[in-house]
Specification:
44% helix, Alpha/beta knot, 5 helices, homodimer, globular, alpha/beta
């Protein structure tokens, strides 16, 4: 039982690595968390991608994501168009999901997530209408998971 | 002309200071940005505050915020219940606001912002329904300001 995050692409920025480490450590006291990174497709900077090329990138990344998704449990995709939750709602979703089984989150790459993966394999939730960089977003997700656990366990949130 | 951020309380976490520095440096190429910190009211950890005490904290912080708000320009408060924008909408708001004058943002403290300040002195915008820590939120705001400027100036977003 626990939480798995599948993220497309490594965190590159030092501050985001430090932030992710901070919240991963805090989460340890509450439960098991595993972060799995799948390779992102290289997109040459400044290169204009056609719709077909974008589809190919998303399809290849979706294959790698699926290979890490276990059959059991519920899998959530983080997507701007997903269901918006506040922090209590997110904590509640964690509680409901983890009672019967594991819980997984998928963070897409620079182009987001493949439409087919989103419609068939994931339940979509949204943190914001805004686009955030992958690195910073992983810190935001880990912080909400930590916060969710403090809410579920009625544990004080350490600033 | 430029952007001012008034934040209640200093950033304490190293990773968030590093993240804020990263985006402040990136923003410099586009325009003037000033971050002003006003003192937060000390709340003893674990102390249960009455509604009256909370009101007092918010009132004192609101006085300090107002003392930093210039008369010119438009001032926006970051509040979960504010108007939700996507990144293009936020960039557009930056463009529209900064054509005639300066633009300011207010980030509240641990208890948020005083209701009177919100209703009379600020236009409220929302990044998320979720609650984020003050430190991390400042990084999120700076990242969106950087992103907004890249959108307005059609400048590539550096990952």
């Amino acid at each position: 039982m626990g939480i798995t995050i599948v993220a497309v692409g490594k965190i590159k920025k030092d501050f985001a690595n430090a932030g992710a480490r901070e919240y991963r450590e805090r989460i340890q006291r509450f439960g098991r968390l595993e972060v799995m990174v799948v390779q992102e497709e290289k997109i040459p900077p400044g290169r204009k991608l056609t719709a077909g090329m974008k589809r190919q990138v998303l399809l290849r990344e979706a294959d790698r994501i699926r290979s890490r998704m276990t059959d059991s449990g519920r899998w959530f995709g983080l997507d701007r168009e997903g269901r918006m939750l506040d922090s209590d709602g997110f904590a509640n979703l964690m509680g409901i999901t983890m009672r019967p089984g594991p819980m997984g989150f998928v963070i897409g790459g620079a182009l987001g997530l493949d439409p087919d993966l989103k419609s068939k394999d994931l339940e979509l939730i949204s943190f914001s209408k805004m686009t955030f960089p992958h690195d910073l977003f992983q810190v935001m997700l880990l912080e909400q998971i930590y916060r969710g656990w403090t809410i579920l366990e009625r544990h004080p949130y350490h600033k």
